[in-house]
Specification:
This protein is mainly beta and 338 residues long. Helices cover 5% and strands 38% of the residues. The longest helix is centred in the first third of the chain and has 6 residues, at 46-51.
Amino acid sequence: MTDLYVLTNAAGMEACITNYGGRVVSLMVPDTTGEFHDVVLGFDNIDAYVSQPSSFGATMGRVTNRINQGRFVLDGDTIQLDRNNGAHTIHGGAAGWRQQVFKADQPNDSTLMLAYRSPDGEGGFPGEVTVAVTFVVNQRNELAIAYEASTTEKTVINMTNHSFFNLSGDVGNTILADVLYVNADRYTPLDTTLITTGELLPVAGTPLDFRTPIPIGKAMARDSMHAQLDIAQGIDHNLVLNTDGDMSKLAARLYSPARGIALEVYTDEPGLQVYTGNMLDGSQTGKNGQSFDKQTAICLETQHFPDAPNKPDWPSTVLEPGETYRSTCIYRFVTGSN
């Protein structure tokens, strides 16, 4: 059974989350005048989420992002996954956790605990995995998300939340005027099929240099012929964070001049996928009858690097029996450009 759970704090911040895919359906935060706005994309009802498969607001697993050819080697065995993105696997395959119903427990007004048991072989992944996701809306106007998982067999795991943010609260506005900062000196470039090449290249001189806050559209215009933007039809890249897993260090900050709302991201993950909604094409209609057009939202997904199971030199996504996978992401909402 699917349900919608409402989390609030004393300041009036509100997150509505469904146990279908562990999705953030709406997120109400205040602007500089105290007026509240829903800053994430989503649908009005569960039928729309089921009939229009999407990533809006979802908990991603077992492995977020793409795996080359849907295949990797684990202890000498070649693991073949469900391929649902051309030749590749994305977000755990067609049976990814965004399509699953989680068991839910809401112990208080500000906390939701979701649980799911992924059977051995789901999507082709080895091991039965037990996962828990805890959402908390705290008094600092943060949505904190904590992930835990264990497995019966050696496997790989890389979880994230796939909320699409529009801080203006109006998807009639693009995110190109929003000002973005990312604490990252390097990024992982893509081949022509959107698979990471294995390189770690400097962001300096590229449209992916957000070390100084800059409007997204202005950053992308630095070099309109930049091959990486052409491949992704915009930004859809993993940036290598400088934070070294330190939750006290700011990983990213997004600011909407339209509302004065800023979103700060803190994480213990090594990477951040920045996706500027390039594949939104107006074919889907969400809350309030508004269609989702290109670049009307941005995703800031905390993660290990894409295709890490095939890149042994990168931070490992391997989870062993007896170990516990843990990952934390905090989305903090404040007002003001500084």
